[in-house]
Amino acid sequence: MQQDNAKRRQDLRNIAIIAHVDHGKTTLVDAMLKQTGAFHDKAGEEAICIMDSNDLERERGITILSKNTAVRYGDKTIHIVDTPGHADFGSEVERVLRMVDGVVLLVDALDGPMPQTRFVLKKSLALGLRPIVVINKVDRPNCDPHASLDKVFSLFMELGASDAQLDFPIVYAVGRDGWAAADYHKPEKDLKFLFETIIKHVPGPLDLDDQPLRMLVTMLDYSSYTGRIGVGRITQGRISSGQQVAMGAPGAAPKMRKVMQLMGYKGLERVNIKEAHSGDIVAVAGLEGIEVGDTVSDAENPGTLPGLEIEQPTLSMEFYANDGPLSGRDGKFVTATQIRDRLFREQQINVGLKVEEIPGEGGFKVSGRGELHLSVLIETMRREGFELCVSKMAVITHVENGVSVEPVELLLLDAPAEFQGNVMTALGARGAQLQDMQVGDDGRVRYEYIISSRALIGFKSDFMSFTKGSGLMHHSFHGYMPEGKFTHPQRNGVFIAKEPGQSAGYALNSLQDHGIMFVGPGEDIYAGQVVGEHCRANDLVTNPCKEKKQTNMRSSTADAAIILTPPRVMSLEQAIEYIEEDEFVEVTPKNIRLRKKILDHSQRKRADRGAEMLED
Known about the structure:
- This protein is of the alpha+beta class.
- Helix content is about 25%, strand content about 30%.
- The protein contains 15 helices and 35 strands.
- The strands form six sheets. Strands 18, 19, 20, 21, 22, 28, 30, 32, 33, 34 and 35 form an eleven-stranded mixed beta sheet that branches. Strands 12-11-17-8-9-16-13-14 form an eight-stranded antiparallel beta sheet.
- The longest helix is centred in the C-terminal third of the chain and has 15 residues, at about 600-615.
């Protein structure tokens, strides 16, 4: 626990808001911004989810990148960091918690603490941060705030919280309506009670202005004008614009740099400031070569702070330039060099990501913290105008005590009781281990499983299919277990196009009796493209472009109407989960196609024959 008898700043509070996905973090921060006058758009109408600033975040309703904002409440400044709630962006959360003195733990009044709540709370308690528990969405039908609070208390005990941390203040709130109160039966008009609780219970940062400068860089940003920007909290000392500073990691020689630009936070904006003091969260430009975990220190008295441990990636994919026949039709950036520059630029600010060039193949191995982490990167690149081909996800294994281990996840499912047999059968086929199962009063069953990241790939779409969209699924990184304990079910074979052309209704009509089609009539097709799923285990080379032969002879069936089943349209995540080792997902700004790595049928047969001979 931090020193409580030391001199502290009374004008500043640094807090992080942590919670599970969709428990209302960003909505609550928006309400705090509106009520302190930090945000009002130009038309005079208030915006929704101001903090979710990029299009992907707004569409998915999740936070991907942690964001800083500062609000004024009376004579105090409250610096708020909104953090991602999904495990794939956990590297963001771990770093952000090093910048704050207290956390607001947001829990849904109906759902209670979820896996991600546990993940982030464990990190914050280990750092000795003071928690404030906010039971949010207390206006939801059938919610039980007291039961949720009991679960939170049990979770604190389980995670080994100290006595001071267990004595947490409780706030009941409805973030959407912008009120917080000590008793949820007596709603207030605003968030005053929450602001007062933060100021009373979260300690101000230590006042160490007279010490030599030390600032730990916990986040990176990038500007085309100033290069890398290091964001972090000043642990001690002060920093000013134009100052000479030392920069370095633990165990490395310090490098001298000049602070070109110093920025603080005011509302939603970064503003240039001349000087910052201990406890302030600032962005510093001009520190060429800065990395996350580096310490910015006094030039005359350099030193380092303990570095950051960032968990290693668990999944990897290969990215290649699109070499298909339809390449260049939709996108602006199609060359391997452009993809390389974009990936290495992303690596500079996305710390959980690792990019390596594949020697001799012109491709890139991109490793990340999970399926969502990688698919968000691909979707972002796609929207920027890139065309690329991506391979099947591979699990990153490593050796511990002479045994090869693979990453496993804690999987939480919530589904109606009628689908219990389907859920347990599907997870049994994947080798998942059941840890706990509870039947709720509302006729829903909650399951807790341990499952390999490898076996989990592709499960989400199956789960949503057999629960008819009524199931809820959450998973977070659990640890490592010996490889081979989990299995991945085999997929059926696919229909592969034999030649290029436009798909014809006549050909699709005969093919749909033997499987599920991925393309409709009148679409551009090329040889080697995957156009459907076969009903058997083997791949089938077909011609979806075959037209009906014209004839002068009359036929009784000539005018029979062709009734085509609508094709299965896959999202990016579904396509990535679906493909096998010998296939690519071709991603362009307008289309997502599945294809074989080797497009030519005769070359593909030759390669398969060569692989069989090697096995023999």
